[in-house]
């Protein structure tokens, strides 16, 4: 890890000589440089050529390697216990650059982004270890990713749609669930079917606030489209109000939601609403459900790869 090694080397020089001449500092430590190094470390561990040659194997290897990013010698663990420990500005710049890499280059890059970061950048981050254990930076990274994804989604709804498509492909996040996406495979997942609990967290703006914001945006887009989404970064201030309006809409008109034949989402059927005969949501334990999706993605993104990717890849149980 070139940037981290440079920081260590500079520290040794400072201890040995007391002063390091500024003109000798040949490496500018920036968030972008560290983000580039993150992707280089991933490419070194898992060859990008696999995307064309065997995308299923590529997904498997990326998913497996994602857990090592916070392993003993993992790039993210070293970064969060080192250079980011007392430098939140650099960390924020780094995560912003990591998020900026999604949806801006190619399907192959997005494919790598999703599988390498899924445990931290998706509803999977509700897993107990991510939200409770911050000794190595897991919680900080998880929350920062959620924050910057929320910023990006508020500015570009197409980016949110692309992200939501990948979650719908995975299945455990969006599978006819009435309320917030969740991962039922993890008993400690942080997803609740109680809108009251979610609203309370959003109003309180606790440390996991941005995780709830991101998840609400996914749920709102999945059901009522752009109607209850914040308009631009400044619009994020209205999230609690948007959540309230969305909940009222779902409560009053949710029975007229129907799966779209074109996207893995539900949309209000206005013609059906005029008849007054909606879909009677059924109970499954305490789970209120919507009609099953018509379009169930066979791969994380609609524009690639060319072959189906089993949605069980990368799911590891406790």
What's this, in brief?
With 318 residues, the chain is mainly alpha-helical.
Q: How far apart are the termini?
A: 30 Å
Task: Let me know the number of strands.
Answer: 4
Mean pLDDT: 81
Q: Main sheet, how many strands, which sense, barrel?
A: 2 strands, antiparallel
Shape annotation: globular
Computed CA radius of gyration, to the nearest angstrom: 21 Å
Q: Beta-sheet strand percentage?
A: under 5%
Number of helices: 14
Order the strands across the largest sheet as they lie in space: 1-2
Q: Show unreliable segments.
A: 6-26, 176-193, 282-287
Overview of the molecule:
By secondary structure, this protein is mainly α. 52% of the residues lie in helices and 3% in strands. The strands form 2 sheets. It has a two-stranded antiparallel sheet with strand order 1-2. Strands 3-4 form a two-stranded antiparallel ribbon. Strand 1 and strand 2 form a beta hairpin. Helix 6 (88-100) packs across helix 9 and helix 9 runs parallel beside helix 12. The chain is globular, with a radius of gyration of 21 Å. It starts with a helix and ends in a 30-residue tail after the last strand.
Show the helix and strand layout.
Blueprint: H1 2-17, H2 31-45, H3 50-53, H4 55-66, H5 75-81, H6 88-100, H7 107-121, H8 128-132, H9 138-155, H10 157-170, H11 195-204, H12 209-224, H13 239-253, E1 257-259, E2 266-268, H14 270-275, E3 283-284, E4 287-288
Antiparallel strand pairs: 1-2, 3-4
